[in-house]
Structures are given as C-alpha cells and as structure tokens.
Amino acid sequence: MRTLIPAILAAAAMLAAPAAFAKDTRTPEQQLEKLLEGRVAGTPQDCINLAATNSSQVIDKTAIVYRVGNTLWVNRPRGGADQLGEDDILVTKTTSSRLCSIDTVELHDRTSHMYSGFVSLGEFVPYRKVKAAAQ
Fold first, then answer.
1. pLDDT tens readout for residues 90-122
2. Predicted confidence band of residue 130 (pLDDT cuts 50, 70, 90)
3. CA quadruple 114, 116, 117, 122: dihedral positive or negative?
4. Distance (Å, rounded) from C-alpha 1 to C-alpha 60?
C-alpha cells in the first residue's frame, strides 16, 4: 500500500503535466486581443508612471503590456518589436520615474541573462474595463 500511493500520485502528475505546459497556439495578436477583452482603448500617451507599474508582460514580436492598477497600457514598439519574446527579461533604464515613448528597453535572455537586443518604445495606449450599464 505504501508503494501504491506514490505510484498513483506520480501517474496523476504525469497526466496533468501536458495540460500545465501546453504551448499557447494563438497568434500574438490573438493573445493580445484576449488579454484586452472587455476593455476599451483610451487616448494614447507619451509617458506612464513607471513607479506605479505593477507588472509587465511581453507579447511575442508584438507589444509590451504594462499594468498600472486596473489599467493595461499597451506599447507597440516603434523599432525592434520583432525581437520581443515572452521569455525576455526587460531592462529599463530611465532618468526619471516615467517611462516614455523616447525610451529604449534592453532585452536579456532569461536563461543566460545575456543581452539579446532592444526595442524603441512607441506611444502607450491605455485600456480600461468597460463599466456595466445600469439597469
């Protein structure tokens, strides 16, 4: 009985593993669309407050999405977007607490931590959740 329980647990883990590590087959544009579902675009801005940023997410070869509170700020780089990979580490060097469309972001490989390129940021487009209509 003692050897049966670990064997059952191991088998269950192996069956669950493919689902946990399944590769997203959607295109980068479809991934971005899914992320922005239920949100509406606002007026593009040149800068965001980097200090208020909760997280960032890279959409392969497409965009960087910064979360500030409940707002998602989408930045489609003006240059180098084709170098963006979801496993990249973003290294941002600014002279203020703001991240602006004139800034660049270095990309580093997550495994080796070696420099792998950079992107020139574009405008930041805010996406906010649509408020439900009062009924």
1. 999 888 899 999 999 999 999 999 999 999 999
2. confident
3. negative
4. 48
Distance CA 79, CA 60 (A): 14
Three-class SS state of 81:
helix
Look at residue 114 and give its three-state secondary structure: coil
Query: Which sign does the torsion angle of CA 125, 127, 128, 133 carry?
Result: positive
Q: H helices of 1-118, where?
A: 4-20, 28-35
- How far apart (Å, rounded) are the C-alpha atoms in residues 70 and 19? 29
Contact 28, 61 (CB under 8 A): yes
Amino acid, single-letter form, for residue 130: V
Q: Which residues contact 21 (CB under 8 A, 6 or more apart)?
A: none
